[in-house]
Amino acid sequence: MEKRGFGKIFIIIFSVILILILIVAMFLYSALKVPDYDEKNKIILQNPIKGLTLEQAKISFNESFVEYLLYSIGANNLHNPPLSDNKPKIKIVIENDIYASIIEKGRVIVKKEDISDQDMTLKTNKEEAIKMMEDKNYIKQSFSSGKSELSLLADKATLFAKGYLNIYKELKGESITGGVIKIYTE
Length: 186
What we know:
It is a single chain. The chain has helices at 2-32, 54-60, 63-72, 126-134, 138-144, 156-162, 164-172; strands at residues 89-94, 97-104, 107-111, 120-124, 149-152. It is an alpha+beta fold. It has a single domain (39-172), classed as 2-Layer Sandwich (Nonspecific Lipid-transfer Protein, Chain A). A five-stranded mixed beta sheet has the order 3-2-1-4-5. Strand 1 (89-94) and strand 2 (97-104) form a beta hairpin. The longest helix has 31 residues, at 2-32.
């Protein structure tokens, strides 16, 4: 008789563990998957510094420059965490100007205003931003040399779920580890 009771308990425990594994796998899949937006949502960005001298670009610097820079670092690949409407938010400080960016379904929306509940803060100056816009390969150099700064402010789980860790690794050349999940990048 006791064998039957043990068998039922084993089946229940096994089923619960299997369901938990499936839920975790679905969460990881949706958190790591880069959003795939259809062709009708694609936008074509023109580099706003094209044809401008460094001085002209500094004088003309506005939201379109910040938008282009954010697309250049891959901010458009950020996304809401699974089953959430918590949009990725970035604060950009360029000299004395502050910009707020919200990423919505692959679109980077930039406004010249302050934001207080950002996930990440990016700090640089106009000349560095312009250099990054001129040469995408310079972006990593600017952050690794300390001429530009990147601060992750949200908790690691949120950063992971929104896709920030890929941007951090790309810009800083290092990964964030710790907590329950350790992410290896080689």
